[in-house]
Model the fold of this input.
Amino acid sequence: MRVIKYDRNFSRRHFLGQAARGVLSAGVLMPVWDAIASTGDVSKAYPDELLSIEGYTRGKIKTGDEINASNVELVKDLLEPIRYEQILKNGRKLRITKTTTDIMRLSPWEYTEATLKNSGKARFDATGNVVTGDGQPWIGGNPFPNPTNGVELFAAQTLSWGRHDASFYAVKINDVNVQGESRFHYAGGWAELSAVARVSMDPKPYWPEHKDKLRYQSVFFTAPQQFRGTSFLNIWDYDQNKFPELYGYVADFHRVRQFPSDQRFEPLLPGTTLFLSDAWAAGDPLNTWGNFKIVGRGPFLGGLSESWNHADPNWEHTMHGGPKGITFWDSTVELVPEAIIVEAEPIKYPRAPISKKRVWFDARNQVVLGMVTYDRRGLPYRSFDGAYSLYEGGGQKFMDGKHPYWSWTHVTCSDIQTGRVTRLEQVKNVEGHVSAANDPTMYDKYLTQSALTRLGAV
Amino acid sequence: MKRVKQRICGASMSLAGVLCISPAFAGGGAGFQIFGGDVTYNGFIRQEDAINTSGVAQQANQFGDPENGRPINRVAGDPFTGYKTSLGLGLPANIGGIPLPTLLPPTPGVSNLNLIGTSDTMTRFIPKRDPEMNYHILRFELSNSISWGSFSIQSRLRVVGDPGGLGYRDFDAREYANIGAGNIPGGPPRQFGSTPDYFGYSVDGKQNPLLFERSGRNYQVDFPALFAQWTNGNVTVRAGNQSVAWGQLLFFRIMDTANGLDLRRHLILGRALEEYADSRESAPGLRLTWQATDTISVDTFAQQFIPTILTNINTPYNIIPSQFTLHDRYWQDGGYRKVNYGIRIRDELGNYNWQAMFTRRYNQLGAIRWTKSLVNTPLPNSNVLGAAFNKYCELALGSPLGQGCGPQLAQSPLQASSTGLQTAEEWFNAASYIKLDGLGGLNKAVDDFPASQQVLGQDIGRDPVAAGNELDAFFMASEGLRGHIERKYFQENVIGLGGGYVTEGEPGSLWDQLIINVEATYTPHRTYTSVDLGHDFTKQNEVQIGLVMEKYQRFFESIPATYMVFQALHQRSSDLAGLLLKGYGSENYSATGVKLNANVPVSTNPKIVPGIHGGANYIVLAALQPTDAYIFEFSAAALIDVQGGVLFQPALQWKPRGNMTVNAFYNYVNGHAFNGNANKNLMSILEDDDEFNVRLSYQF
Done:
């Protein structure tokens, strides 16, 4: 019989105590970043009850079990309210896998290496931008691996979304209504490329000609026919006080047009409530949001591994739940020992439809685990949860250079007020556009105005 | 657990098998290969209907001619007094209400005919027939691509069908073939010989002049896009049939010079927010796009010249008076061998942008003038004047016996035809409607054609009474005259500059993120249709300046932003349709006060082509308000001709589900909103096009 040295209440007391003192130091037994720096593993920073679902539930739920309406009460505290409700009432289920403790399996390899290498070199300058000691743009990895406040968490997330220097995601989107019917289907691609803080692609850490930019990002749609060729290109200034330039190819007009840069809370597509602002829970320049504050800490159930559907040649995922059995992704989650919940408000968007967002960050490496946005009345509006994974499994691997590809696999966006669910997934290929990372040709392929024209409807 | 995709057709490697492998293909398709290339396809099928609410047919059509059913007095002029006086003046048609006997009985539509046939009352025998529907088509479009990495072939197939009938009132020229001189029109028979040619595009000398289109009376099949694309980093080359759209302004085509418009189908009256998505022409050619730097893009093209395709006569949106036969010289003049080319450079500098363009092109609008009819048909001998003229031509001009004035008329721009013009009033009304000079046009039909002079046609100067007399003389003699005009194309250089700025203000305010763009082009020596249709076209410099201001404004936190656009356009010499402004503003002539257009003054001394000075000015106001999740979109757009015309279109779009779209919109046209005379603005041409539109789309 194993004696649990630090029981569940110890952890709870630890998190509450730190919150009461206004202290943020990730890790319970020791600073998690110290554990990572010394061993590459987080196990020493957390007690057993935070490192396995068996420990947390005292054996009532085991690795490999399914969380459903019959046992969700046991993990209610590990879920955002909407996921709990969906499991309880809408037939949503989660499969439990073991907690990942190897930090190199929780982000792209090079990103984590750069985080370790550049630890302690970041600061905010007078304009609120992350810079190096000599005032230059950030040089790669997470600038604040041991965050002390909410803005540092959001700054890191805003600086690098997908944690690769360049990413292209072939994406499929389905909107499912309350009756469980899939009403809107979309397919397309999302590209993002960093101009600074590059850790894999030459030149690095900066693309010299574009050093004043943070990133180039585009999204385009190939289906349905009405939206085929519709696309948007965001060009982000490094200065996080400036709105990104926004251009769009309008299929009906057959040409690229400029859009207002504060146009970040409009539905990208009919039938969905996905905004540019929602991207990676940090879709807007850092300093257009404010009042960052940590509102909670504790363990969480998040999708961090085993979520790549290697069995499908196009990586497409399977579904369950809802009236027709297609409302939710089949998801695999694990016990995240410590999540940090941060709230922020859109201070430079006077008529934004949301009043604040609450984002769950993994305290170990600061990836976003989930998000809930609130409407202007302060009521929960939409909930986002998703899954990341190393793209290996079943004897297969999809490589990103020397290492298996790490990326998100699927996202569930639940409109709490209407009951609609929008499912997004990263697939291998949409009309010849293939998901990949760190391909320097992405810029010409997807991230210029000429590219928008080329991708546009004919 | 339910699979996203259930393999239902097995693992067949045949194309058909591959197509049915995955239900995902039901929503368009991708994921299979042909010849090693990745294949994709998707498309839609759409029913489009427009219910006529104006209650009248388009006035340029035979059934919409405002003269139909209107008794109008005609008095033939005396050629020996320069048509200043009337022939047989004082000879009454009746005494005490009792008709006097005439030398020949009245012909169809004629009453009150005097003894020697030199004055009468004409009631145009073609009836007014008002359509219930303006438009009903079924459209199918299919987009395909097959790609091998950086090389791909892309296409879009468009198939449109319209059965005719079903609420239309189709004019059939054959029904009038036995009246007077009959109706041998001289133009392409499919367009002029019988019922309306809804979709056919044929020009003189060629039935299907476009390489990528086959069309007929009730169908159109074409490839708006069919090209090979090659990409090499920052360079993209497209070779094949394609369209090129330039410029920031919507609706107003300032820099959008590469391609003409295909005005068949729905003229410019489709859903406003789709701009020219369905009507911009494509053309075979080469396009090279180069992203020169992060901010500078260069776009060049060289394409076969293809004209703007006008509506055919008697089709619901026809704007060319159907009493005229248009000879399109595109093929005969070798236009299909001509090449248009151009270059545009655009630089985006954050809140600023600038662009410059140059196009050397054959103007797709072309220019129109009188042309010989080449129709050798004598004047009908069923009326006194016709018989007298024919005899004159045979005896004095040497026409072969029995051909009367046919040989002379064949060398003139006119032919005797039952579907032609019948009265001076109709002539002046048709001319002023299309912004032409009713007096000058008559003179040029005489001056430019010696054969017209042989049959006693005379230049009457600027005397409307003499013109009326002369016209009536020929209309009575011919029992209807068709005019023949030809459309030719001319090369020009278009030079353009533009700039844009995005404002920064208090976040959320009206003045924040206002997108402002200005564009201007200069076209030296553009060739225009002369207002008198004279042989020598008019050459004038054209300057177009446009302003567009766009704003997305969130008025409510819970409702997506409202899109608003304001545009203004100034053109120095011509209007939106390319008609010279000097032809604007005509009043109509009538010796007896007949008013064929209630919104145009009539007198015996009308102002003919006073023109409008200071250029043409247009304004567009439009707004779009989507609801949450864009399930509904409410929009409204107005095109205002500041000289007095308005086209207003409220619209609704509903997306009940991803593969279905319902559109409803109403076109309200007022060509006499203000400023007195409807001929002072362009909208009067569309005056009869009030309609309610419904479109039902299914996408796959």
Observations:
- Residues 64-130+371-486 of chain B form one domain.
- Residues 206 and 324 of chain B are 20 Å apart (CA to CA).
